[in-house]
Design the sequence.
């Protein structure tokens, strides 16, 4: 039958406690505080309501229909399992625990809706266990959170665990910020994966998913971040700054056997606030990934955001199989300011590449695709319009493939592969449009047979190459009728590659309506200067590049103490880019773009 326990009753000094409201119409009404050393098990075949406090090491509750946790109710338990056959309603969920005796796993699931009126906060740390700290939220229909949704785990000293899974069959609606994060400050094993999957729509004030591992914290397998939304993803807040930030920061001087992959899949539209950015980042500087370190982003509809950035940082790092950055937009991408798709430290990857696959891109500022070393950039039937459009691969064997579509710029269009064996290949008909100056520069420029490159505007393209593999009409070396050719305004006769102007791929920085603003860095002592120069590497034109990245919450810059970094072994410096952590970005050479 039903069980009702009021506040006048309390349970303490027990090892275990089991309460079972048996019967199809039986409810469990719990107003009594409970404290046990090991485990509390609660069963109700119909509903359970709770307004009291439970303190134990392992809480297990299985309810046939609805769970309601309201008022002053609180759960103090490292390990939690809650199952509601229908709905789970909670006024406020805050659980911050260190697991020492149990595995610290948290599983909260409902056959229908999970509704948290205020904040949903779960933090788990390791207090001496070897595996666990896995967090799972599952809603058979909707997950509704009135305030912030924040889940954090720590894989330090675990052989496996610290995975975060939020699975919603229908819609996920968060009134505040949505933040899922795993981290490590010590040796770890397999895990630290973040998986957010929503079958319908996802809305939040802003969204951050991040795996952030500390200096010299080994990680065997994992560190994958997956965001899947079946329909629309929207970020919006009162300050009109809601954005999307997905990050993976691997350890330093260690090896990740498999993982560090970032997956973004949106079934329909992705929309941020007008002041919100979309950022996908993997920082593998000074680390090795045997298999992984890929960024795959696919948008089934339209993309609307202020700045779009997909970056793989691999300076001083190594990638065996992987190192691919892929962007596919089925509809139209409207980028108010700048779009950057870049790989830094590509020579450390066996075969890195950037793929822009289909879609229409309207970029108010600069659209930059860039690989600083060997690798390949491929535009596959993409139509891009920007004020400035630049694509460059700067390794000795860099390849830039243009496969159909339209590349159009108002001010400047540059396609570069200036390495000693660099190739610029036009593999199918393409339009280089707009009234901009158009510069093609590569060791070899090849227009495949029966392919036409149409130059828009009034000015012919400027060509700099040592091997003009196209029709002799435009100064090329091919004399047969089917040789690839230029059309429209055509192209000037080629000049030697050595005479090509600089690529000048300036950093998007913090543009406003496509205009650049200058950044001033104040250096107070030699230690700060050395720390800053730790992150500098030669750019495409020989100049040093110093890391910089716009931060939405620069007010938290006090987390970085440059003076503390004045030590001999600066190559281990780990200035990381994490959410809300100041304006100086990343560990050595991160966030860099060619000047």
Sequence:
């Amino acid at each position: 039958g039903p069980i009702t326990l009021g506040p006048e009753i309390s349970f303490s000094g027990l090892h275990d406690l089991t309460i079972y409201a048996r019967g199809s119409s039986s409810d469990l009404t719990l107003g009594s505080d409970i404290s046990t050393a090991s485990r509390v098990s609660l069963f109700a075949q119909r509903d359970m309501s709770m307004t009291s406090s439970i303190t134990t090491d392992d809480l297990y509750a299985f309810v046939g229909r609805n769970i309601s946790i309201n008022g002053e109710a609180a759960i103090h338990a490292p390990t939690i399992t809650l199952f509601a056959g229908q709905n789970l309603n909670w006024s406020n969920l805050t659980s911050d625990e260190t697991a020492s005796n149990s595995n610290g796993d948290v599983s909260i699931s409902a056959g229908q809706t999970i509704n948290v009126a205020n904040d949903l906060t779960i933090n788990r740390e390791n207090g001496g266990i070897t595996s666990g700290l896995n967090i799972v939220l599952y809603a058979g229909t909707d997950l509704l959170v009135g305030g912030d949704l924040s889940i954090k785990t720590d894989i330090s000293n675990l052989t496996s665990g610290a995975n975060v899974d939020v699975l919603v069959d229908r819609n996920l609606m968060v009134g505040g910020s949505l933040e899922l994060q795993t981290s490590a400050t010590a040796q770890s094993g397999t895990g630290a994966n973040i998986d957010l999957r929503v079958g319908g729509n996802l809305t939040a004030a802003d969204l951050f998913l991040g795996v952030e591992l500390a200096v010299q914290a080994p990680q065997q397998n994992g560190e994958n971040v997956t965001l899947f939304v079946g329909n629309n993803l929207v970020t919006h807040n009162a300050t009109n700054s809601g954005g999307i930030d997905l990050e993976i920061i691997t350890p330093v001087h260690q090896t990740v056997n498999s993982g560090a992959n970032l997956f973004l899949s949106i079934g329909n539209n992705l929309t941020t606030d007008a002041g919100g950015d979309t950022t996908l980042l993997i920082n593998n500087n000074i680390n090795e990934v045997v298999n992984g370190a890929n960024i795959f982003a696919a948008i089934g509809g339209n993309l609307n955001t202020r700045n779009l950035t997909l970056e793989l940082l691999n300076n001083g790092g190594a990638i065996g199989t992987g190192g691919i950055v892929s962007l596919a937009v089925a509809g139209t991408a409207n980028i108010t300011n700048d779009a950057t798709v870049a790989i830094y430290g590509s020579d450390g990857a066996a075969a890195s590449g950037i793929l822009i696959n289909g879609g229409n891109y309207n970029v108010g500022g600069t659209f930059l695709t860039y690989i600083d070393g060997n690798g390949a950039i491929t535009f596959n039937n993409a139509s891009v319009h920007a004020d400035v459009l630049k694509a460059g691969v700067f390794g000795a064997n860099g390849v830039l493939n243009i496969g159909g579509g339209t590349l159009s710029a108002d001010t400047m269009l540059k396609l570069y592969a200036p390495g000693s064996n660099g190739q610029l290949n036009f593999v199918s008909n393409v339009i280089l449009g707009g009234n901009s100056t158009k510069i093609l520069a590569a060791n070899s420029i090849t227009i495949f047979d029966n392919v036409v490159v149409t130059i828009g505007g009034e000015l012919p393209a400027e060509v700099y190459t040592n091997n003009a593999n196209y029709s002799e009409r435009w100064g090329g070396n091919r004399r047969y009728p089917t040789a690839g050719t230029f059309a429209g305004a055509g192209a000037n006769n080629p000049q030697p590659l050595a005479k090509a102007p600089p690529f000048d791929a300036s950093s998007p920085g913090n543009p406003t309506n496509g205009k650049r603003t200058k950044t001033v860095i104040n250096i107070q002592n030699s230690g700060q200067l050395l720390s800053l120069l730790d992150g500098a590497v030669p750019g495409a034109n020989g100049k040093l590049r110093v890391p910089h990245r716009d931060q939405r919450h620069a007010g938290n810059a006090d987390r970085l103490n440059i003076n503390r970094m004045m030590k001999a072994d600066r190559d281990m410096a780990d200035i990381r880019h994490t959410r809300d952590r100041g304006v100086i970005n990343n560990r050595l050479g991160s966030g860099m773009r060619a000047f």
